[in-house]
Amino acid sequence: MDSVKQKSSLLLSGILSKDINLFSEGVRKGENPFTVNEKGQSFLHLAAKSNAAEIVELLVKLGLSLDERDKKGRTPLHYAAAANSVEAAQKLLSLGAQPDSVDEEGRTPLHYAASAGSLEVLKLLIGKVENPDIPDKKGRTPLFYAAAKSKPETMTLLISSGADLNYKDSLGYTPLIFAAEKDAQSSVLFLIEKGAEVKERDLRGQTALHKAVNNRNLFLVKELFFLKDIPDNDNLYPIHYAVNVGDLDVVRALLDLGADPGSKDKLGKTPLHYAVSRNFKDLVELLISYGASVSEVDSLGRTPAHYAVANDNVEILQLLLKGDSKGELKDKGLLIEAAVSKSVNSLKLLIGEGFNPNERGGEGKTPLHHAAAINAVEVVKALLEAGAQIEAEDVFGGTPLHYAAANGSLEVLQFLLSSGADVNRENKKGRTPLHYAVLKNQPESVRKLILSGADIKRADEVGRTPLHYACELNSPELVEILLKAGADPNVLDPHMVSPLHISAFINGPEVSQMLIDSGADVNLKDKGGKTPLHLCAPKDSFEVANILVERGADLNVTDNQGQTPLHLAVISKSSKVLNLLLEKGADVSLKDVEGRTPLHLAVMSGNRDAVSSLMESSPDLISEADSSGKTPLDYVMEVGDEELFSTFTDYIGSGFTPESPLVKSILKSDRVGFLKALIESGRLSLNQLGKEGQTLLHYAAALGAPKCAAFLVEKGVPVNQKDNFGRLPIHLVSKSDDIETAKVLVEAGAYLDFKDNFGKTPLHFCGMFGASKFARFLIEAGVNPSPEDILKKTPLHYAASSDSAKVVRVLLEAGASLDEKDSQGITPLVEAAKSGKFHVLKEMVDFVLSGNEKQL
């Protein structure tokens, strides 16, 4: 359908006059009946609205849809319902229009008829729908809209047709609550008469009375007074609402009907609190006259008088004081409230009424403390005139001057100083106002205090001066002020920490430069023996470090742990400071109290860049041992860092053999990455043999290195290569008793029953070395439990003589014989007895007695 503006035409004139002939003439003359206006209304919508039933029928015959929608989703039937166009509605329904079609807000024609009071159309529609309680998107049924528009006839029809009087919408409103909110007075009375539940509450807990009060509807308030004691979800009663809207008549009516003037909301506030805070003087008078307490406190401990003071409303405050017949407001902290609020008029009134200008609040603060903190100079003047103590201390020993200094309250600061406040008064931490002016970064306060005689060298309880704290803040402005005033740049706290130590620690290059220019000693040591250079090194504070070095800082100075700045830079991975120190010639060979060089610590901390830099600087460091005899390479082995090890391979020499301590250490710790790096660097050959003809695989087996063993097998080292004694790598697994290594060799094809030059199999070696786990592994793999060597000895003979009871048990359980004799005629039993291995002998006897007597 064309969306164009419908100008004055025969079609439109015909609709407005309900003249079908005129409309038909417009069609014959070529006017387009399918256009819509800027609101999306078709001629069918307009005909329905105008109750032009004949034209409605004609338009439908021409092809316009009964479900035609305007821009808000409304059909022609919606328009007929809203306009009470009975004939048009009847025609649309007879042609098949849907009575329950919804617009974009979920409203049906029934909603529109109810809202407009279109009684006749409503009758037509109700007969076409099953349920009159069709909710729109807000959950509201037609009864809601009839109630809101005070349409008693439509409400009656809906209720008689089954509409629920207590239906709740998405906000928890019932038709009664909705009517009350819309100030539909007659609907409220009508619904109550029809039996609506009057005590229902919406999702915020509000009743119809809350709504009536908000609308200042005195008549409804009186009609609904019985709901006066029902609060909302915030525990606000209707009396609270009445006060908030400031309606004197409604408030009086509620009070006359029995509303409690002392009702409290969830914050503990009474109606009087609200009346005072909103400056409703008439309501304040009214509530007090009905017995409202002027001294009742809310959850914050505030009385109505606090709110009057906060607003500096003297008239209301006077009313409250007059109502305080018992003098209960005297100890409620009203003067402190006046100070905090800068309410000078209220302050003077309270003082005139005899309130104590030195009253104490939280943390022991007086009104003067509070006024000083917020630069309320007029309040300060009034308090001092009234006798407030200028040196009053809070629980921390702080005076008003401390607060003025800390908060940059310059006018108050000047006034207090001119009034005789002690500029060097210390609090319980030994801090003066100057300390706090610095700590809170208040340069103007600092200047005024110094001009008034503040002691710039005064130390607090931890021995820190204002200059120490200025350096902590890294404030060049504060440091400059203090230094120009004569602060000592080398002043030390009890830990021997100077301002320069602090500046170096927090990376303050500008402050550090200022201190040094003023004479700060760059080599002062604190109690730990650390200089400023020590402290900036771990922070990688390059600018500060460079300044210190350029101004003569000792590069090789040691602290109490024997560590130089270089040690600390290495540990903390401070690359910029590290490079600076190396460039400037720091000694890389110095050792700490545990004999560790920076290289040791570089390895410990995993600082690979430092390792490279230090090794390039001094390759000999690799052989330096610490106090326990460990070299940096030993540290590498312990931490297992393969990348570090690769770095070290460039400096560890060459010509390694399987017997080399480094190779053994690698195999013992099963560092396959290290082994790979050593081989790939050409410093160890895969085929290198030991003095006894043993391959690297022999050593891996003996030391229990399954990962290394797997690597060697993968690289082609023969799994069954014999050494000079005819032993295979599998023989030597017995030395480590490591099953994982055994599995690697077996998977690679190791001969499990192979005999060496002396006739010994791997199982013989298990007996010799007490390898019970490997022995069981071999037995489970199917080897003979009683092979003989060239001396006719079985593995059991060797287990008996080598004090290996566990291997004895494994062999006996596998069927090894106790009767086997060697070439000397000696049995395993005799071997055990002869060797003095009595617990092995006992193991054999116990085994026999447990059910194997035939062995004897």
TrEMBL record:
It comes from the Bacteria. ANK repeats lie at residues 39-71, 72-104, 105-137, 138-170, 171-203, 234-266, 267-299, 300-332, 363-395, 396-428, 429-461, 462-494, 495-527, 528-560, 561-593, 594-626, 692-724, 725-757, 758-790, 791-823. It comes from Thermovibrio guaymasensis. The keyword Metal-binding does not apply. Gene3D superfamilies: Ankyrin repeat-containing domain (1.25.40.20). This is Serine/threonine-protein phosphatase 6 regulatory ankyrin repeat subunit B. It holds the Pfam family Ank_2. Keywords: ANK repeat, Repeat. SUPFAM superfamilies: Ankyrin repeat (SSF48403).
